Automatic annotation (TrEMBL), chains A, B:
The keyword Translocase does not apply. Keywords: Proteasome. This is Proteasome subunit beta. CDD domains: proteasome_beta_bacterial. Transmembrane segments: none annotated. The gene is prcB. Pfam families: Proteasome.
Amino acid sequence: MTYCVGLMLKKGLVFMSDTRTNSGVDNISTFQKMFTWEVPGERSITLMTAGNLATTQSVISLLEERSKQPSERNPGILQMPSMFQVATLVGNLLKEVISTHAEAGQRADSAFNATIVLGGQIGDGAPCMFLIYPEGNFIEASFDTPYFQIGETKYGRPILVRAYDPEMSFEDAVKLLLVSFDSTIKANLSVSLPLDVHIYKAGSLKNGRIFRIATDDPYYESVSTGWGIALREAFGQLPDFVLPET
Amino acid sequence: MTYCVGLMLKKGLVFMSDTRTNSGVDNISTFQKMFTWEVPGERSITLMTAGNLATTQSVISLLEERSKQPSERNPGILQMPSMFQVATLVGNLLKEVISTHAEAGQRADSAFNATIVLGGQIGDGAPCMFLIYPEGNFIEASFDTPYFQIGETKYGRPILVRAYDPEMSFEDAVKLLLVSFDSTIKANLSVSLPLDVHIYKAGSLKNGRIFRIATDDPYYESVSTGWGIALREAFGQLPDFVLPET
């Protein structure tokens, strides 16, 4: 499937995405699902995709083309004055690409659908994050709902809910996301390493640390093994259950 | 939705089911989803249901009727000589009830579908557990796959995978299931307390301890709160992440 998470912190934004793509269980590949753009001193934009790969690759390619050859009629994401307008542009593009192939009518279950997490900062605006639907509309994250997950979201959600803290450091946020990804990867074969990570520092207005966590990464292994042990210990420390009186 | 889990241990079987039923978010009710039958000294059978409530209630009612008025042509679940044959009977009944209402053809996405977890022990047979599909066929649990979940399964699965131990006591198994249910209840509004529990002791050939965990049960509260705290502490104890060198 896919698993991508965008996390909003007081210190900035953290993005993590897997790289497994599959067309049936007998056809798996590795494709990047995270894409970044920057105009240093002015903007940093990150986009992560889930869903039909042909759709998402078309959206990325069109965004790239139009940002390299902007015109008054077709400003690209490097020209839009706010993240809200970038989200609107990406949403319209996503809807357009899907409708090129999908049958007319309801878009909800189309095989060509894709969902996008878009985040970043432009100029004076605050860092922000959007979840863009195949229909082209979108919602924005706030500290009430400070993260968006796309793809196989359920296994990895409980730990995000419980351990997320808006004041947490970037390092702790990466650790949190790795635990969330580990639960997902263990449960769904179509989500897998390597993982792409982008740490965006609020106010920096340029791409931050971008790196890949490889399939045999020793830190990931230590988190994965350590978390299993930690869960069993935590379970053992819960108060004992006593059968009710008959 | 529903959440029910059947767990197989060396010591016996543990069943837990929620009781929330809903028809849209504005129409929620409480209905029992666990049903038990016994012939003391001979058999104990437990059945838990997920899916279309009208379908599952019909299946239960027909099982009840036929077990009270068995005939040579229509033996009931209290007459079948093995759990495998009980599973076959229940599977056929489920398929029959669904097809009474569903359109002809593919059954996979029918609005009338239901899934059943069936467990128990008859005579000399070992305790066993089955997952019965709307198509009427079924699979059997073994110590390779020693539990079945039906309904909203994803949130509650990681802790089962990590903390399950075939040698665990019944009390620990109930505690484990409550942690699994707590993650699910926190994440999906259509799963809720009260919870029904049945602890079947291997070789006893009669129903075991059957009880309900109420909405305000203090032990459940202590597990729910304690687990949140334990997860945050476990997370804090994982090795720190260090940003890779640029």
